[in-house]
Specification:
364 residues, alpha+beta, Transferase(Phosphotransferase), domain 1, Phosphorylase Kinase, domain 1, 2 domains, 6-stranded mixed beta sheet, two-stranded antiparallel sheet, 14 strands, 38% helix, globular, ATP-binding, cell membrane, non-specific serine/threonine protein kinase
């Protein structure tokens, strides 16, 4: 069992152990030895403090940057969505290689593989969830409520996410989610079965994950629920890293997830992890470009301070978020927990203090 206090010197050793468990060419794993030092450097801590006003009392949900995005940034976002939409036209196709990568080339005539999500009527999804009954409710996020349902046509159990028109996300995030998950396929990404865009209704239909999210197994556990053992924690971390590797290294252009956190890592049978919730995902920089300029979106506690302060999004923004998730997996603590003692509210800052003390003692 991982105890809540097993951080100090064990964290760095765990990081090294984790890197040996996963065989990836992934940029985040090739730099894992530097990950925690970057996370807890004084510059990173001060940057996070400045970015969020130092109060640390925002909700843990998705947030937009208070500053209005420029017309150029909105135009860029619209162009990116249009570019993705072009790939989903009936006459468009993608080259899906054996390793699961997408390179945007025409599929050879001897083996086309068309990628498309099913369309559902609102009546079908209402029937699947017994008219969205409260006892079918699985949870609620930035997009809206998620229900467990059973499709009458196939008898398949699914998770159905319904857009909350008064929520933080809307048509843009719905479209991005449909486009991204229709194009991107990997064992460690949740599978989008279909969607409904009837009238003003916006619903997404996913494969059902019976074990819920990683957050359900790390935080606020009831007394009768067993904590995850160490091997299971490492298995989940490795699977999440593989999903992120696919988005960064296999997809072309690369995809920046932008909202990696414990609640967006869903667990299938055997604690097999899958990344979910791609509404905030962005196409990454290509060619000689180093970043993508965009509105700051994400979740407090997981957002890279450089991105929060500048709006310049890079693949490394996801790496920072992955590092925070890894710290949560190792320590069992939340990224932000205001119920803890002073100085322990922010997980990254708290681990930073422990590491600096450990280094000081070592050199004393």
């Amino acid at each position: 069992m991982v105890k809540d206090t097993c951080v100090n010197g064990v964290v760095m050793l765990t990081l090294i152990q984790f890197s040996t468990l996963v065989d990836l060419s992934f940029s985040s794993l090739s730099s894992l030895s530097l990950l925690l030092l970057r996370l807890v450097s004084c510059r990173g801590i001060r940057g996070t403090h400045r970015a969020w006003g130092g109060g640390g009392r925002r909700s843990m949900g998705c947030f937009p940057c208070p500053a209005k995005s420029s017309k150029k940034q909105k135009k860029r976002e619209e162009d990116q969505i249009k570019a993705l939409a072009e790939k989903l036209k009936p006459n468009a196709s993608l080259d899906v290689k054996k390793d699961g990568s997408l390179d945007g080339k025409a599929v050879p005539s001897n083996g086309p593989e068309h990628i498309a999500a099913q369309t559902f009527t609102f009546r079908e999804l209402a029937a699947a969830t017994k008219n969205f009954r409260a006892d079918c409710l699985l949870g609620e996020g930035g997009f809206g409520r998620v229900y467990k349902g059973r499709l009458e046509s196939t008898n398949q159990i699914v998770a159905i996410k319904q857009l909350d028109h008064n929520g933080l996300q809307g048509n843009r995030e719905f479209l991005v989610e449909v486009l991204m998950l229709s194009l991107l396929h990997h064992p460690n990404l949740v599978n989008l079965i279909g969607y409904c865009a009837e009238g003003d209704q916006r619903l997404l239909v996913y494969e059902y994950m019976p074990l819920g999210s990683l957050q359900d197994h790390l935080h606020d556990l009831p007394s009768d629920k067993k904590r995850l053992d160490w091997n299971t924690r490492m298995k989940i971390a490795a699977g999440a890293a593989k999903g992120l590797e696919y988005l960064h290294d296999k997809a072309n252009p690369p995809v920046i997830f932008r909202d990696l956190k414990c609640s967006n890592i869903l667990l299938d049978e055997g604690y097999f992890p899958k990344l979910s919730d791609f509404g905030l995902a962005k196409l990454g920089p290509v060619g000689d470009k180093t970043h993508v300029s965009t509105r700051v979106m994400g979740t407090y506690g997981y957002c890279a301070p450089e991105y929060a302060m500048t709006g310049q999004l890079t693949l490394k923004s996801d790496i920072y978020s992955f590092g925070v998730v890894l710290l949560e997996i190792i320590t069992g603590r939340k990224a932000i927990d205001n119920s803890r003692a002073a100085g322990e509210h922010n997980l990254v800052a708290w681990v930073g203090v422990l590491l600096h003390i450990s280094i000081a003692i070592r050199w004393y």
